[in-house]
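Obj.: predict assembly geometry.
Materials: sequence records (below).
Method: joint structure prediction, all chains together.
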Amino acid sequence: AQSVTQPDIHITVSEGASLELRCNYSYGATPYLFWYVQSPGQGLQLLLKYFSGDTLVQGIKGFEAEFKRSQSSFNLRKPSVHWSDAAEYFCAVGANTGTASKLTFGTGTRLQVTL
Amino acid sequence: GAVVSQHPSWVICKSGTSVKIECRSLDFQATTMFWYRQFPKQSLMLMATSNEGSKATYEQGVEKDKFLINHASLTLSTLTVTSAHPEDSSFYICSATSASYPNEQFFGPGTRLTVL
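Observations (raw structure tokens):
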């Protein structure tokens, strides 16, 4: 069974500082990996995804993530955080089956940005 | 492209009544749709997977007679919460995949259900 761990429940960073959100997954083969962001009362917005190829993935809003197979990790990074980045961030893993498969989400990391 | 809508965006109902939530893919044909629920400050939990024209597959612990899912067309799936109770109050989110992009789910904006 696939699973995702986001070790940090809550992170606070200053505006302009760098950010790294951790994500570790468990899956028997090469997974499909996703990062989503959710503002309060809103749905999910896809930040980036990894299916195959280059292990450093660029996403929207200046975010990037690196797939590290040896560490079973897919950490999300941003070099300079903006106040508007404050939200809940979810890492998710999906099965690499070529057909529609369910996603397993981590518990989320709430990002707070101080001015 | 790949826009998914949900209706209503929020609903308040009395205990014992039934509520229907619609999930539509606006610009693509959704071969598979997923329904999630999210309690406050918690993650998304998959409730069921539905394929067009087939019965939904429910996750363990989800009552299929309470959460009725219909996926009658390639652009519409509905979730009906029957005989709703306050503990069913939650944020319900749907997602959809297409044949062209089977491994990427496009999410709706969610529906906030409050049962009084």
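Conclusions so far: Chain A touches chain B through 26 residues (CB under 8 Å).
To do: check interface contacts against the pulldown list.
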